[in-house]
Amino acid sequence: MTEITRRKERIDRKIKVLTEDIYAISSLRTIVYILLPRFVFIIGMLILPLMISSMAWQKILIISCIFSLLAISYDFLANFVGIVCLGGALFIGVGGYISGLLNSVLKLPLYFSIPIATIFGGIICTLFLIPCLPIRGIYFAIVSLMYPLLFSRVIQALEIFGGTDGLPGLDTFPNIWFELYIIVPITLIVTFSLRRLVNEDFGIVLRAIRDNEQAVIASNINVNRYKTSSVFIASIIGCFAGAYLAHLYGWVGLSLFALDFSIFPIAATVIGGGGTLVGPVIGSIILAPLSEMLRAFGPLRVVFYSLILAGLVIYKTEGLVPFLERKYHKTERWVDV
Amino acid sequence: MNKEIILRVNNVSKSFGGVKAVNCVNLEVSEGKIFGIIGPNGSGKTTLVNIITGFIKPDSGSILFEGENITGLPPYKIAGIGIVRTFQIPKPYYSLSAMKNLVVPLYSTRILNLVEGKTGDRDTVALDILEEIGFERDSNTPYKPASSFSEGYLKRLELARCIALKPKIIIMDELFSGLSVSEITSLIPIIEKLQMNGITIIMIEHRIKELFRLADRVMVLNFGERIAEDTPDEIIKNELVKRAYIGVAEDAT
Q1: A102 with A108: CB under 8 angstroms?
Q2: What's domain B5-246's architecture?
Q3: What is the tally of structural domains in chain A?
Q4: How does pLDDT run across A279-314, given as a tens digit for each residue?
Q5: Could you tell me if B107 lies within 8 Å of chain A, comparing CB atoms?
């Protein structure tokens, strides 16, 4: 037989990887190899705003970053602590309304109202979620999904905080560059600090809680304290996104409690890859512009959107980031045999 | 009993609906001894462990540890005073390596208080414990994720988690179940060594042969009630125990 058969040959990079976090760092080449993806991601994120010329797309990038923050907070709770929290709308609403009220009623400038709303919003959201901590899985998700509905109905019914009209005329950022270079670095900082956190002792305890809560309790660790802290961390991330959004629009209203803020992060996490923390960011940066681009198709937009999502879920279940990570660590080439 | 009694369970009862899982059980465990608890399936052994370690609140009765009433304390506090347990089905933190599994107990309040904030080289401590429990120090086994371990190593890891807490009492809930004979044989010296280090051990077992070799005293539970407590040699002769286990024919005539 003269037919040439070909097979795939795997070329493993010559790095001894003992575990996920012990690398035998030996040379500059190795260090570059390990740090390159991180470097590319950070630089890419930072110069992305400069490469986009149109204002509309810059706005879309900002929205992607806001969704990224929500998606990171979802990924952190779901894949590192084991709490499935659909509190995106809750965080955005609470953060946005607090910042809006501080700005419109107390006339605090946005440089104060955003940080205060971040911390206070975090505390308020945590207080609301603490009673639900003993319940797990889907039940926690349902409760966290109910709160935004509750808040928006209360605001509607009692006509407080501007009622259905919301609070218009809030301070906005001086210009688009300001907006961009606040949200993009913060997204990066949040991503990498959380990545750091989950590998510290605190984060290891959290991951242990996800794997087996009973054993952590039996190891003399107050699980509720850890869960509360992690919900607080997720809340402040979400509340910052909400407060920022309020000042981006210069307006807060009932639409801040919209379901989209709770559902989108899950989609972004699925596409980017859960349990990676970078995945949700990349997922959001793909999904948000995609849904914007599909706007041209009118009502068909949802069909395309769903098809793309379904395709990604079926064929790349692991998500984009774990897939790329795998490909990065081992390359393949075709050889003749 | 000449040794001091470290754990005393007084008239503890617990019902689940209409089932009396544990009914007025008394037991006294002397310090530094191995105390065995046996009984058929559903006799309330694990419920008793859950009550002692605080995972289940008893309906009545009290538990005294070193003379202090610990009934109703949350489980993590009971672990904090030195009563630790293994679980019947070992579920370590699968996504973490064996070393990282030990970070959790080594990061606990009890250990941080014992070492007075000086954590030292935690990796060395973790490696020491893993070596003691039968992991090879120089291999890469301690760095492998727990999901890749066999049942025997999972049980070892479960025991390592307890040892890392520097306990006074270890309660082993069916440590030998699901293990091969050779795996059990290799675990026995480890348990004997723990006892020599002054740790009191309560063993719940179905493996009567191995338990009777190790235990100083054995209690037998049946339908949530204590039917006997004695030295292993006496327990074997006990008619009630035979009846509970084998179900001696009621008067064959």
Answers
A1: yes
A2: 3-Layer(aba) Sandwich (3.40)
A3: 1
A4: 999 999 988 888 888 888 877 877 877 787 788 778
A5: yes
